[in-house]
Amino acid sequence: MSRLKAMVKSALDDRSPRFLLATVALGVVVALLAGFAIGYKVDDGGGGSKRAKQTRSQRNGGKKARPPKIKEAPLLVASVSSLSARKLTVLDAKSKSRPMGIGRKTRIFATDDAKASDVKVGSRVLFAPSSTSKTTATEVLVLPSKAKLGQEVSAVKPGTSISLKTLSGTQVIKTGDATYIKTTTGKRTNLVKGEKVVVKFFVVRGRRNQATDVVVLPNDTKFK
User: Fold this and answer.
1) Are 152 and 165 in contact (CB under 8 A)?
2) Under 8 Å CB-to-CB from 13, ≥6 apart: which residues?
3) Which of 139, 163, 199, 202 is deepest in the core (most CB within 10 A)?
4) pLDDT tens figures, 114-123
5) Contact (Cβ atoms closer than 8 angstroms) between residue 126 and residue 141
6) What is the pTM of this model?
7) H or E, element range at 71
């Protein structure tokens, strides 16, 4: 062991001070480069640094972003007031202006004459009740079976009555004196000022209306 120490001491004594300083400097540079590489790997791992994640969390108030609150509104029978690229404004029964957001996913329907035989089990319908009875229809609107509005028909007595599915069971609607109309494919060009429409819409965040379905009714419609 003493011989090994003597050999090491002899080797160091043979090196000049300039050589030793250069060796120390090289060691410092290598250590710095290694530390930088490790630090970069830690900072870049996992999709961003801890500080960046903390900043994003602070912007959200320390909470995860929540989806917007959406509530389905009752169907609205109204008349078209104006139309723009992203907004349909209608006037309700009290002539109050109701702006509705519309987009490429908003379904627009026109209407045509129909017959009692067009109503089948599985169809979806809307009806205009008479002024004297909520279970007597004056007009029946026949919708596509996959429509997102209306009630599903569970039974039919052509020209007499239809049975509709409800949350509590079944509702029988008398149709003896009713007229019938059905939906056809519509376009934005059908949304002309003054046209009466049925609008299905949702209220977003308690302040903005977004229309999902708009049915353009005939001029002599009994829907009010």
Assistant:
1) yes
2) none
3) 199
4) 999 999 999 9
5) yes
6) 0.70
7) strand 70-72
